[in-house]
Amino acid sequence: MKKVFYLNTCDTCRKILAQFDLTGWELREIKKEPITKEELAEMYKLTKSYEALFSRKSTQIKLRGLDVKSLGEKDFKELLLDHYTFLKRPVFMTDKEIFVGNDKKNIEALKTFFGVSE
Description:
Elements: E1 2-6, H1 11-17, E2 26-29, H2 37-47, H3 59-64, H4 73-82, E3 91-94, E4 98-100, H5 104-114
């Protein structure tokens, strides 16, 4: 299994996806097709944390008046399943590895995984 979860309206996601040969990867646009409980469980197995999958930049945080510091793992899980913008993206997932988000360290790890050099 090789999947990429991304948001089509996100320029950063599109820029990152364009760097890699995604032949053979299932591309999932999370607004059109939100993640399922099963997929979230698979992500959790690889990250051991719902918080690691949670985007602190989601506009829903302010709209809902959420205090992220007070949230627990169960809250993060429910929010991730409730609204697509709570998922840190993009998420590249295989049976054994997961790459979450767009920070520099993650992108470097992805480049190594795909064998892409600068």
